[in-house]
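Suppose you are handed a protein chain with no further information: no name, no annotation, nothing but its sequence. What can you learn? This example shows the usual starting point.
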Amino acid sequence: MKSILLSLSFFFLIFKLTAQNAPFPLPGMVYGEAYYCNWFDCPNGEYQNNSFFYKGDTTLCGLTYHQLAFVQNPNNVVHLRVENGKYIILQPTFIPCTSEFILYDFNLEVGDKFPANNFNWIADSLIVYQIDSFQLANGEYRKRLFLKPDSPFQFITFEWVDGI
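A reasonable first move is to predict its three-dimensional structure. Written in structure tokens, the prediction is:
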């Protein structure tokens, strides 16, 4: 589960500056990352590939979720829904439909705190310290948030850019 959450935390999502969300996810696209593991997660120094693809939509708990499947194991699926600029993950639990958390919130403003559910090894919350936009090669702009932990680990920063 940590691997899924870590992968999704580096996973950039689509958003328009007009506050209208672009269609997400896009069929046919592969999202994700490949990174060199740290010594704790991968003691042999191997690379880890956490790429996802859009597998389709499903209805769970009366809500529509996008299914994001791991490229390496398509049966391993993450359920994500988008609502008002918030990207929400349905966590697998023993009691279905009882646990969701917000992975990203693009409605945040400078000074706002974001609960660090998926960054809990750093701090209880992340603070937005800067917001700007990022221009894509096709001329479109995407919102970009800069966040840092509300803790002594403030030298670690996070950058959320939609659509990259």
